[in-house]
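As a next step, the fold was encoded as tokens, giving this record:
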Amino acid sequence: DYAEAFNNLGILLRDLGKLNESIDNFQQALSYRENFAEAYYNQGKTLFDLNRNIEAIESFKKAITVKPDYAEAYNNLGIAYKEINQVDISVEILSKAISLKPDFAEAHNNLGLAFASLGEMSKSIECFKLAIEFKPNYSYAYNNFGSVLKQMGKFKASVEYYNKALAINPNFFEVHNNLHLLRKLDQCTQA
């Protein structure tokens, strides 16, 4: 099936960092099969990687139109809306992803980030707890949990979550950076 082949080639090209070529292949896939939810979804992910968020949103919406129970497309649609600062819409869409797939750790994590950007820290923390419950080795959720705790001034607890993230992924640069910033903050407050 040509549609499937072009979709798979698009994924491969995206993984190789050839994003524009990747999009061309998703378009080819869609020319062979108009109602190909996965090709719309993959095109949306690639457009998002190119910071073409409005186009990514349209691709994710098309994927959902074709496949209304596509939790992953709702998750990525929610992320894209957050990127264009439409966080209330993001929360609504990420909640829909979770309603379709309640154990979707990534969607819980992304919803936690959305709530944090709205200043709703207790809701954010609950989301990170669920993400970790559903995916215990999810270093991103531990890092994000630590960052919210840091924003709340709970520095010791944030270090604990950053260390858990590093235990899972010792090369997680963002966590190392977060710990470095905390140490600098601690030095400033002790000076």
Remarks:
- The two ends are 67 Å apart (CA to CA).
